[in-house]
Amino acid sequence: MQAYRAMQVVKNGLYRSTGEVVDLLGAPDGSKRTLRVLMYHKVNDLWPNPITVPTAVFAEQMDLLGELGYVPVSLGAVRDYYVDGTPLPEGAVLITFDDGYRDNLENAFPVLNARGFPAVIFAPIGYLADGRPLPHEEPLVRAGVHNPTLDWDQLAELEAGGVRIEAHGIGHRPEHASLVQQAGYKLGFTAVSGVNTPDSDRFQLLRYNVEPYSARTFQLVLAGACDPLSVKDTVAGTYVRRTVTRALGIGSR
């Protein structure tokens, strides 16, 4: 996990430096930057624990959204925009969580609820409440770090509190966008970084994977100044990234 920590420091530094350079050269054109989607996973203070944002950092990021003029919107508002053309507010942001971790209820929900922010949780229903860890959690469990998933009653509690619950597949495996459309879904989301425009494919909407960024780095990510780094999410970029993480002994998704 020391290797993961070192890589995290390097990655955050790369985002900050790239964002500052792009910002210095001129902020990206915001005229068609219709929707930013934030992708979180775990919100807790366990260490070591990859793909986790500490609770205090998450609260700071939620406060920054308002301070920077962004407007959290519901999944229904995003659907209405891409299906019916209903306008979104300027600076619209959709907050999403993948994998259905219990800490989304215990730690993230109180922060969201206190601010009146809507959110979406994409839950893999094959891993709810049966005690099995998600595939990428197995090495952590062997190391004594447990990140349990939500059960059905907890999902109902979240939805009653204004958090939308949607599908993340059954077994946490990606599906082709055309299959999502054929199944009758109105929207689909990827793990590819970037901002969404009026012309975005609504079955492949982009999301920013959020990490324990500093306030300034979070600001730069939202502004699009770090978008050049989305090359890491291309086929070639993903191959290089996974090769590096495997060489360092770090699990990669």
Query: What is the number of helical segments per DSSP (H or I, 4+ residues)?
Result: 9
State the distance separating the first and last CA atoms.
Answer: 16 Å
Provide the succession of SSEs. HEEEHEHEHEHHEHEHH
Structural class: alpha/beta
Helix content: 40-55%
Strand content: 5-15%
The major beta sheet can be summarized as: 6 strands, parallel
Oligomer: single chain
Question: Mean pLDDT, nearest integer?
Answer: 86
Q: What does the overall shape look like? A: globular
Gyration radius, in Å:
18 Å
Pick out the low-confidence regions.
none
According to DSSP, the number of beta strands is 8
Explain briefly what this protein structure is.
The chain has 253 residues and is α/β, with parallel strands linked by helices.
Task: From the structure above, extract its key features.
globular, six-stranded parallel β-sheet, 9 helices, 253 residues, two-stranded parallel sheet
Q: What features would you describe in this structure?
A:
This protein is of the alpha/beta class and 253 residues long. The chain has helices at residues 2-25, 55-67, 75-84, 103-115, 138-142, 152-160, 177-182, 215-223, 235-247; strands at 35-40, 42-43, 52-53, 71-72, 92-98, 119-123, 163-167, 208-209. Strands 1, 4, 5, 6, 7 and 8 form a six-stranded parallel sheet that branches. It has a two-stranded parallel ribbon with strand order 2-3. Strand 5, helix 4 (103-115) and strand 6 (119-123) form a beta-alpha-beta unit. The longest helix is centred in the N-terminal third of the chain and has 24 residues, at 2-25. 30% of the residues are buried. The model has no long low-confidence stretch (mean pLDDT 86).
